Amino acid sequence: MNGSVQARLDEFIRHKGLRRTAQREVIVKAVFSKDEHFSAEELFERVRMTCANTSRATVYRTLGLLVEAGLLREIDLGDDQTTYDPNFLDKPTHNHLVCIDCGRVVEFEDAQLGELTACVTQRLGFKPIRQALKIEATCEQLRNHGRCPNLIAARLSGKRLRKKR
Ligand SMILES: [Zn+2]
Ligand SMILES: [Zn+2]
What we know:
With about 160 residues, this protein is an alpha+beta fold.
């Protein structure tokens, strides 16, 4: 994990008059150990493997703190649950493409989107603070071959996929 994340969180926690706890540090480490998006429950399962006595409530509270501190972002991938994204510190303007068949998420950045955001907000008399685009799509694999390894993996791991409309 990037040392500055812990430093920024420590600063934030101190400001709020909270104390550093070992349990919270384990959770923060788990959040930033991978660049995967996750739900609170997925994180809870992951943390419990290394630290069996972690409570669900502590996981949820820590996620709340990280979001409040601006270190972690909540995103909506269209599957009726809150997804957490640890990648905005490294890629502050990244966007998501989501396959509605298999749930695969691809991150992308595009300078033209930034220009478009600047143009539109300026035209309307605003100043952009943050912007994220979500594109819902269908992947080629399933369309062309009727099979998609990611869909099989998603079903096996019990991932909830969005209902087709
Ligand atoms: Zn992301
Ligand atoms: Zn797909």
